[in-house]
Amino acid sequence: MMDRKVLDEFNAQINEEAFSAYLYLAMAAWFESVNLPGFAKWMRVQSQEETAHAMKFFSFIVERGGKVALKAIAQPTAKWKTPLEAFKAALAHEEHITARIGTLMDLSIAVKDHASASFLKWFVDEQVEEEAHADSIVQKLVLAGDSTGALFMLDRELGARS
Ligand code: FEO
User: Fold this and answer.
1) How far apart are CA 110 and CA 104, in angstroms?
2) Pocket lining for ligand 1, CB < 6 angstroms
3) How many domains does the chain have?
4) Cα torsion 134, 140, 144, 148: sign
5) What atom of ligand 1 comes closest to residue 49's alpha carbon?
6) pTM attached to this predicted model
7) How close is the Cα of 149 to the center of ligand 1, in Å?
8) Quick count: other Cβ atoms within 10 Å of Cβ 160?
9) For ligand 1, what atom is nearest to the CA of residue 17?
10) Which range marks the domain in which residue 126 is found?
């Protein structure tokens, strides 16, 4: 049986991951609207990954005999000024998620819930990748500057994500 506080935080994390999926879907829609289909594809795939993250928490709660409690998903931002601004927002969001995973890990350790701590280890590692991916695209966009050619090349590169 899961500790009550851990269960509540795990349920809250389903919401965080579902919101992440929604946020990246909003970014995909925005990139489509500004004719950057490669960036949009990258965001669509990212959104699917976030849904998979939410489902990992969902399945873990069920497996531990806890009750899944779904809350309303907040409306994400729908517009960004530039691709760089959107990816900076994505990176800031991933930093927020990393902090959330840290909080969940600290709580699991505090109540000696080793199963939850072991489960969270995957997310600790995943967040290193999530931040690195977003940051590398931020850096490429900074390098691209005002070059439309560089932006279109990056759009082709990101569109290859599957
Ligand atoms: Fe589920 Fe992008 O962290």
Assistant:
1) 10
2) 17, 20, 50, 53, 94, 97, 130
3) 1
4) negative
5) 1
6) 0.96
7) 30
8) 9
9) 1
10) 4-159
Cβ pair 20, 138 in contact under 8 A: no
Q: How does 125-151 read in b/e, with b if 16+ C-beta sit within 10 Å?
A: ebbeebbebbbebbebbeebeeeeeeb
Residue 91, domain CATH: 1.20.1260.10
Residue with CA nearest ligand 1 atom 1: 50
Contact at 8 Å (CB) between 50 and 20? yes
Alpha-helical (H) ranges within 3-82 are 4-33, 37-63
Question: In tens digits, what is the pLDDT along the chain, a chain of 162 residues?
Answer: 899 999 999 999 999 999 999 999 999 999 999 999 999 999 999 999 999 999 999 999 999 999 999 999 999 999 999 999 999 999 999 999 999 999 999 999 999 999 999 999 999 999 999 999 999 999 999 999 999 999 999 999 999 999
Specify whether the CB–CB gap between 96 and 46 falls below 8 A.
no
